[in-house]
Design brief:
The chain is an alpha/beta fold. Helix content is about 55%, strand content about 10%.
C-alpha cells in the first residue's frame, strides 16, 4: 500500500505480486490503505510534511487500535454485558500486541467478531440490512484469510437452525438475502483483485468513453482471479509450506495455545461446564468455535501462533462465566501477571530494534543493506522515494551472506544489520560498527547469559572490503 499511496520503493510480498497473487488487495487497503490516505491528505496541510518512518509505522497501528474496539464490543454484546469477559479479552497480551499490527490475522479476527455480531442480530430479529451485512462480512473475511471458514462454520449451522425454527418462509428469505449479498461481494472483490493484479483488463468496444457508455459497451479480457482459491492451492502443497517452516502437528495445541492464551482455554472449558443463559450464542457453539478450528489448523504442517488469534473471542466469553465464583478469582491475578510478562517480551523486546535501526539510516546515496538473522524488514519505513536503497533479506543463510558480500565488493556502501548476539566472524571483510540499537531480542539467537545486556542489541556494520 505504501508504494501505491506514496510511491515509495518497497519490497512487495510474494502473495501480492501479479505472478503469484493469492491474497486480496482489500485486506492491505483496510489495514494500511485507509490510514495512509489519511496521512497523505494531512501531509499536504502540515508545513514540513508528516510522512516519516514513525508516521508510516504508527498510522496503521492507531487505525487498527480503533478497529479492535469492534472486538471489545462484540465480547460485551455476546456475553450480555459480562464485564468479566470483557476484562479477560482486553487484558490479553494478544489484544495489545497482535491486534494493533497489520497482520491478515488481525483482519480475520475483526471479521470473525463482526460475523458473531451479525449472527446474533439475525437470530434476534428479521432485518434485511443485517442479513445483507452478514453476507458481506463473511465474504470479506474469507477473502482476507480463507481459514475464517473454520472459525465460523458451526456459527453458521447454529444460525441456519435458528432461522428454520422460526419458520420455513423466514429461513428461505434469510438464505436468499445472505446468498445474494455474498455473491455480490464476491463478484466485486474478484473484479477488484483481477484489475489490480492485471489478470484482466476492461476494453471499450466503441470509439471513446462518454457519459452514455453502458456495461454492454465494455468487455473483460483475461482470467478472473479468485485469491482465496489460489491461496488454498498454495497451502495444499507441502513443498510450499516447507519454505515457511514445518512444525509438529501438536504445535498449536501444546505450544501456541498456551503461549497465546495461558490458562484461558482451560477456564473456558470449565466455564462451559457452568452453562450461562446470559450468552447470546449457546456455550456449545462457542466451544465448537474454539475446538473445530484448532483441530483443523493442527492438521497443517505449518503452524504459527497468530493463526489462532480469532479464538480469543469465544474463549473470553466462555471464561467470563467462571469468574462469578469466588474460588476462581485467584486465576485473574495469574492471568494479569502472565500477560504483563508477555507484553514486555513481545511488545517491547522481541525484534524491537528494527524500527529504530531503520529510522537512523541515512538514505542519501545508492547503498545495499543486508539483513541477517532478522525478520524481513518493512522496507516502506525507509521512506525511499528515489529508489536508492537495495534491501537483501538474507534470513539465517550464512552461505548466502558470504556470497552476497563477495558480489557487492565493488559497491560503495554495503551494510549488515544483525542482532548483537550473532557471530559474523565468517565474513571475509572488515566490519566497522556504525551504531547499536537497544533493546533488541532475537528468540532465534538468544543472547548469552554472561553478556545478556550487551548482546541485547541490533547492530549495524559497514562492510569495508
Amino acid at each position: 500500500m505504501a508504494r501505491d499511496v506514496f510511491g515509495l520503493n518497497t519490497t512487495i510480498p510474494w502473495e501480492f505480486t501479479p505472478e503469484t497473487a493469492c491474497r486480496t488487495v482489500v485486506t492491505p487497503f483496510i489495514v494500511s490503505g485507509v490510514p495512509f490516505y489519511i496521512v497523505k491528505a494531512l501531509d499536504q496541510l502540515v508545513e514540513g510534511g508528516l510522512i516519516s518512518t514513525y508516521t508510516l509505522l504508527y498510522a496503521p497501528r492507531i487505525w487498527l487500535f480503533l478497529l479492535s474496539f469492534i472486538c471489545d464490543y462484540v465480547v460485551w454484546k455476546v456475553s450480555s454485558h459480562n464485564i468479566k469477559s470483557l476484562v479477560l479479552y482486553s487484558t490479553s497480551w494478544t489484544t495489545s500486541v497482535f491486534l494493533v499490527r497489520p497482520f491478515s490475522n488481525t483482519v480475520e479476527t475483526v471479521f470473525f467478531a463482526l460475523t458473531m455480531y451479525y449472527s446474533v442480530m439475525c437470530a434476534q430479529r428479521k432485518n434485511i440490512l443485517n442479513y445483507w451485512a452478514l453476507g458481506l462480512v463473511i465474504v470479506v473475511g474469507v477473502f482476507s484469510r480463507f481459514t475464517l471458514i473454520f472459525f465460523i462454520g458451526f456459527l453458521g449451522i447454529w444460525l441456519l437452525y435458528t432461522q428454520l425454527r422460526k419458520g420455513l418462509i423466514r429461513f428461505i428469505y434469510f438464505s436468499i438475502v445472505v446468498l445474494c449479498s455474498m455473491a455480490a461481494t464476491t463478484a466485486t472483490i474478484v473484479l477488484i483483485d483481477s484489475l489490480y493484479f492485471r489478470s484482466v483488463e476492461i476494453l471499450y468496444k466503441g470509439d471513446s468513453l462518454n457519459i452514455s457508455t453502458t456495461i454492454q459497451d465494455l468487455e473483460l479480457h483475461g482470467k478472473l482471479l479468485v485469491t482465496p482459491y489460489q491461496n488454498l492451492l498454495y497451502n495444499m502443497d507441502t513443498k510450499n509450506l516447507e519454505l515457511h517452516g514445518i512444525h509438529p502437528r501438536i504445535t498449536h495445541v501444546l505450544v501456541n495455545t498456551p503461549l497465546l492464551f495461558g490458562l484461558l482455554p482451560f477456564l473456558s472449558i470449565c466455564g462451559w461446564k457452568y452453562p450461562s443463559k446470559r450468552n447470546l450464542i449457546p456455550n456449545k457453539i462457542l466451544i465448537l468455535c474454539i475446538m473445530f478450528p484448532l483441530l483443523i489448523l493442527s492438521l497443517a504442517p505449518h503452524q504459527e501462533a497468530r493463526f489462532l488469534l480469532p479464538i480469543l473471542i469465544p474463549i473470553s466469553i466462555l471464561s467470563g462465566n467462571l469468574f462469578k465464583r469466588k474460588e476462581h478469582k485467584k486465576f485473574l491475578f495469574l492471568w494479569i501477571a502472565f500477560n504483563a510478562v508477555l507484553v514486555l517480551v513481545f511488545g517491547f523486546l522481541h525484534e524491537a530494534g528494527m524500527i529504530d535501526t531503520i529510522s537512523k539510516m541515512n538514505i542519501n546515496s545508492e547503498q545495499h543493506v543486508l539483513f541477517y538473522k532478522t525478520y524481513m524488514p518493512p522496507t516502506h519505513l525507509f521512506h525511499d522515494h528515489k529508489n536508492l536503497l537495495k534491501v537483501h533479506d538474507i534470513g539465517g543463510n550464512t552461505t548466502l551472506l558470504v556470497e552476497t558480500i563477495s558480489k557487492l565488493s565493488t559497491s560503495d556502501i554495503v551494510s549488515i544489520v544483525a542482532p548483537g548476539s550473532v557471530d559474523l566472524s565468517m565474513v571475509n571483510a572488515t566490519l566497522e560498527l556504525y551504531y547499536k540499537v537497544w533493546p533488541h531480542l532475537s528468540t532465534e539467537n538468544l543472547p548469552s547469559l554472561y553478556r545478556f545486556l550487551e548482546d541485547l542489541t541490533m547492530n549495524v556494520y559497514k562492510v569495508n572490503s
